Amino acid sequence: MEFSTSKMKDLIKSETSKRVSKGAAEELREVLETYAGDISEQAISVAKDDDRKTVRGEDVRNALR
């Protein structure tokens, strides 16, 4: 999974009037990709534990708990 560095820069800029470095945007991208991957793995595990082939939104929410 990959998030765009430019979108991460836009996300940070939407919260401030300060300039945002490419490094800050890249770091946010890396953190979010790791976090999203971990949550995805947990959500897949939840669906598997419930004997389902489909990962649902509720599985993602439960993975966050």
From TrEMBL:
Record-linked SUPFAM superfamilies: Histone-fold
Subcellular location, record wording: Chromosome; Cytoplasm
Keywords: Chromosome, Cytoplasm, DNA-binding
Main location: cytoplasm
A family per Pfam: CBFD_NFYB_HMF
Source taxon at top rank: Archaea
Membrane-crossing segments per the record: none
Domain Transcription factor CBF/NF-Y/archaeal histone: 4-64
Alphabetical list of InterPro entries matching this protein: Archaeal_histone_HMF, CBFA_NFYB_domain, Histone-fold, HmfB-like
Family as reported in the entry's similarity comment: Belongs to the archaeal histone HMF family.
Stated name of the protein: Histones H3 and H4
Species in which this protein is naturally found: Candidatus Nanohalococcus occultus
